């Protein structure tokens, strides 16, 4: 599953630097998460780092991008350039 940032975001800037996949960027009004890059920190950390640091708890699972752990691991390997 990819994560998403809801409109409760206060643009506090703490999530973007925490993302190891550089999936978080500033959108038109609030930060957004690129689902093609979001692995929920699989391969990097045990828990999504953006969720851990968000002071307003506005980063839930994106129901439009439900993915299994296996898919997240595959995405992680692709993002970091692991071919096996």
From TrEMBL:
Top-rank taxon, per record: Bacteria
InterPro entries recorded: 4Fe4S_Fe-S-bd (IPR017896), 4Fe4S_Fe_S_CS (IPR017900), PSI_iron-sulfur_center (IPR050157), YfhL-like (IPR047927)
One protein family per Pfam: Fer4_7
Keywords: 4Fe-4S, Iron, Iron-sulfur, Metal-binding
4Fe-4S ferredoxin-type domain span: 1-29, 31-64
PROSITE patterns from the UniProt entry: 4FE4S_FER_1 (PS00198), 4FE4S_FER_2 (PS51379)
Name of this protein: YfhL family 4Fe-4S dicluster ferredoxin
């Amino acid at each position: 599953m990819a994560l998403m940032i809801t409109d409760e975001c206060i643009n506090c800037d703490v999530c973007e630097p925490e993302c190891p996949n550089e999936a978080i960027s500033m959108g038109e009004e609030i930060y957004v998460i690129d689902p093609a890059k979001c692995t929920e920190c699989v391969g990097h950390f045990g828990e999504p780092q953006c969720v851990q640091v968000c002071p307003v708890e506005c980063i839930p699972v994106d129901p439009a991008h439900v993915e299994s752990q296996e898919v997240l691991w595959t995405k992680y390997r692709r993002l970091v350039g692991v071919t096996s």
